[in-house]
Specification:
about 210 residues, about 15% strand
Amino acid sequence: EVDIHLTGDNKIMVSHDSNTKRTSGEDYIIRQTDSPKLRRLDVGSFKDSKYKNEKIPFLKEVIKTIPVNKKLVVEIKCKSEVLPYLKKIVSGSGKKEQLIFIAFDWQTIADTKKMFPSNKCYWLSSNRNDVMSRMNTLQDSGIDGLDLHFSIIDEELVGMAKKSNLEVLAWTVDDPAEAKRLIGLGIKSITTNKPDWLKSALSGMQVK
């Protein structure tokens, strides 16, 4: 999974944050800064000296690294203005079918589904009341489902989503007991920081 932002010169770059202060020590807002200036930043040293001079990648560079038969989840952290530029990158990548899109902004993910009707698109949320209030209209948007913080997922929500033919995904789960609960509710996809460890822990637990 990667997070994307549109730069000042309308390039798409991969960054968790909307500015570069935390990772580079220099404070640039990505949307207001052209990509050549952003590419000159060292965003690796803050993590470890062995990553010195790592650059903020372009999305097109990351897409090239997707292994065969694997998927890349792209979180759109800007708004719908990125979509025309995203379409150009995706169309020329040869890996369109390997991409999944997610976004917290409701209009952005709805617009993304219209732009990429054959790709899976999920609305991100950690607000249960917001999700439940929109449930009856979500299906009309065409999106494929919900990508929710694990803490708001319960039997009632999953049941309503199922009636609306919406998939439910969960993030971010690093507790085997919580993963077991979600699997028991029918959740098929879980985001975790510790995939191998979580799989190993779950293998020793009986999931009903």
